[in-house]
Structure of DUF3558 domain-containing protein:
Amino acid sequence: MKRFAILSTALCVMLSGCTTEQPLNDDTTPNIESGTPSESAADKPQAQAFVFKSGVLEIGDFDPYTIGDDIFDPCTEITQEEFTAAGFEEVEPVLEKYAGISGGLKSCFLTSQDGENSATISNNVANRPVIEDAYGTEERISTILPELYVYSPRFGTSTSCFAQVDTLRGGVAVIASGLEMTSSNESNCAKAQKVLENLFAAHSSGR
């Protein structure tokens, strides 16, 4: 299907952001004295998190070089009922023939109940600093999910846009894919952002 062909290309380009070599340890980094008092639990802001039946997915930084296999899989760790609560009536796995070029990323296509916010959700082993170096990122105003950011790997006539939030178990990305003759990059960024916000609004804590 055409949408999967466009999506698979987008996923393949997204993976190029993960090819940065692991940085060497910097011996000049100052050591933190063990006697420094730690911040009390009462002073710490409550961490934002997605809350699914499979567990709590805390928003925060992760190291793409050491995360290993403990990467959140949105297609298996979010139930159909949870997607439905966020406004998506159907979850369709990416076709096997296209999944092969996605480098192990887990992706599935979400059909929205209103038909206007259908998109693809995927995990990502690249965090914001890696993506920033590869493509640059764009700040988006989001009162629901302030940690959200978007980026647009450009290739050919694609207007695809990715909205992502980093978690302790890797990135969770929503891809709104399209071509110049059918959609603009700005409209796809707005769509990807809305899908991720809807998912967080339906299943979150710490707000």
Notes: The chain has one domain: 2-17+50-205. The mean pLDDT is 80. The beta strands are 49-52, 55-58, 88-93, 107-112, 119-124, 138-139, 149-151, 161-167, 170-176, 204-205.
